[in-house]
Specification:
The protein is mainly beta. The protein is built from four helices and 17 strands. The strands form two sheets. The protein has a 15-stranded antiparallel beta sheet that branches. It has a two-stranded antiparallel ribbon with strand order 10-11. The termini are far apart.
Amino acid sequence: MKRIALLFIACSLCLTNAGAQSKCGIQNTAFKSGERLTYNLYFNWKFVWFKVGIATMNTDLTTFEGKQAWRSSLVTGGNKRLDKFFVMRDTLLSYCNPDLSPLYFRKGSHEGKRYYVDEIWYSYPRGNCHLKKHAITSSGEHLWSENTYKQCIYDMMSIFLRARNFDATNMKEGDIIQLPISDASHLNNAWLQYRGHETFKVEDTKEKFRCLVFSFFERENGKNHELIRFFVTDDNNHIPVRLDMNLSFGSAKAYLKNYKGVRGEMTSKIN
């Protein structure tokens, strides 16, 4: 979970599933089909920051198994400079219902000398959340498992789309939002903590934005770890413009390089 992809991104089923869909869904007011976000990635090595790659996130309204769904993809990759320290190639794919309740998730990761795949299929029987999980380990072993939960469960991508639609109007600094997130192997105890407002200038583009600031935490081995601190535009689009990441192999940052196809006016931009 301690990766850039952590941060980085609905149709109704039959009437018998409508209640479960509403339970795990949320109204989308943040993005529209055709949104394209691109980020520059930086890595800290011995107190020096290096530009090491890019990340792109695309969101489109399409179909999944014959029904309307959101398709969101996130691709992160380091360049040859980063490859000297740590090879990083991630491709994430998510399908969600129009109400953003998840349908399918896939992550393919090349980390160092390891390559592995996680997959999750979601269904909502009798108001529960059922996950069918498939993992391909770095040794090529295929592992299958299934779990059913009473609460809603999400993945890296579906929770990103969901979080962009949170209304922070009445939130106070320190407020916490619980976010149960699963991969193909584990269910993780994770949460967001709201840190208030801040103005941020993107050094790469010189654009300045009013931002909402959040921290993403995960509890592991009895300790709380802040994995990512991110800054999202303080408007209805809630586009992340900066991410500070504590990775297993060092520190990294991502800065918004360009954006297009956004849903609403960027009222958070300061001229």
